[in-house]
Design brief:
It contains twelve helices and 15 strands. It is of the alpha/beta class. Helix 3 (88-96) links the parallel strand 5 and strand 6 (101-104). Helix 1 (38-51) runs parallel beside helix 9, helix 7 (180-193) packs parallel to helix 8 and helix 10 (274-285) runs parallel beside helix 12 (341-355). The longest helix has 17 residues, at 208-224.
Length: 356
């Protein structure tokens, strides 16, 4: 197991050995209102925090916009990241406003300016995320490698080396492309060549439907390889959708924090309303904060056998003594009771509440 360097972001710790087994994979999102709309951004940030966001990022286009960072720090308990491009003086304003992390590309700054930002960040214990995107690679890197995963990784490592040369090592790296495979390959290279914590995601993934699919493939593949310490699902959608998608993605790869409902696709053997039952269970467990696995299955074939790993579940099949459709309640693959269809959801909800 690769032991990652640890980097503190506010009250959170990225990296170390715990993230390799999914212990601490933090969810991020970015505020999407103009920086000048401070009250609107605060409302959005509080909604994201309530939904389960761990780290929030805000664009700071101009020095005056650092006022947003200051106000966010007053209102939210999660770490706040300032997203900076080109002007090191904006980074300094954001640091003074209380930013917990600075996101920038050191290659966009003059050597002296880079040194100034790194020295102040080091003095105050503020990490820097080096954010490399396929659309903004340095010309010399493109000339040497072309547009490919190797170019993304090399750019990140070279930019990290610029900070290392001046003694700064509280670094988080990201290498994002809108091409899923390029993104995956670039992160795999970084994972092999450095121990810095990695912020993973697919950039410019698109609108909600395709963006979730691309993010699931890209982020999910990396997490299954134990790569990644913090994730951001980038969608052309409301930021709350990014949080919901990220939580579902973590559940899908076994790192969930909330209940997961598994259900069969149904077939000709199905005699109960699996679709309706599964949707009702999902609504019931929404907002609960324990990683239970709950199964809703159509028949005994897909019941306590194929859903053996579920903590609790129901499966259709058979008739009660009075001829009504019925099914079974099971826990960890063991049938513990028989129930009529109309009582299935009531019994399952009661069992879930007891487990919680």
């Amino acid at each position: 197991m690769i032991i990652k360097k640890t980097v503190k972001v506010g009250n959170l710790t990225l990296g170390g050995s715990s993230s390799a087994n999914g212990g601490n994979i933090y969810i991020q999102s970015m505020l999407k209102k103009p920086a000048a709309d401070i009250e609107g951004n605060i409302r959005q940030a509080l909604e994201l925090q309530e939904a389960g966001c761990d780290i929030i990022r805000a664009a700071v286009p101009e020095k005056k916009d650092a006022a947003l960072i200051y106000r966010l720090k007053e209102k939210v308990s999660m770490p706040v990241v300032a997203d900076i491009h080109f002007d090191y003086k904006i980074a300094l304003e954001a640091i003074n406003a209380g930013a917990d992390k600075i996101r920038l590309n050191p290659g966009n700054l003059e050597a002296s300016d880079r040194k100034t930002v790194a020295e102040i960040c080091q003095k105050r214990g503020i990490p820097i995320r080096i954010g490399i995107n396929a659309g903004s690679l340095e010309k010399e890197v493109l000339r040497e490698y072309g547009l490919c995963a190797r170019a993304l990784a090399e750019s990140a490592l070279r930019n990290a080396a610029m900070l290392e040369e001046i003694g700064f090592s509280d670094i988080v790296l990201s290498v994002k492309s809108s091409t899923v495979k390029m993104t995956i390959d670039a992160y795999r290279i970084l994972h092999e060549r450095c121990t810095y914590p990695l912020h993973i995601g697919v950039t410019e993934a698109g609108t909600k439907r395709i963006g979730i699919i691309k993010s699931a493939v890209g982020i999910g593949s990396l997490l299954c390889d134990n790569i990644g310490d913090t994730i951001r699902v980038s969608l052309t959608a409301e930021p709350l959708e990014e949080i919901y998608a990220a939580k579902d993605l973590l559940k899908a790869v076994g790192f969930g924090r909330t209940p997961e409902v598994i259900s069969c696709p149904t077939c000709g053997r199905t005699e109960i309303d699996v679709m309706g039952l599964a949707e009702e269970v999902e609504k019931f467990v929404s907002g609960m904060n324990k990683p239970l696995k709950i199964a809703v299955m159509g028949c005994v074939v897909n019941g306590s056998g194929e859903a053996r790993e579920a903590d609790i579940g129901i499966a259709g099949g058979g008739r009660s003594a009075n001829g009504n459709k019925s099914g079974v309640l099971f826990k960890k693959g063991e049938v513990v009771g028989k129930i009529e269809e109309e009582k299935m959801i009531e019994v399952l909800k009661k069992e879930i509440e007891e487990l919680l």
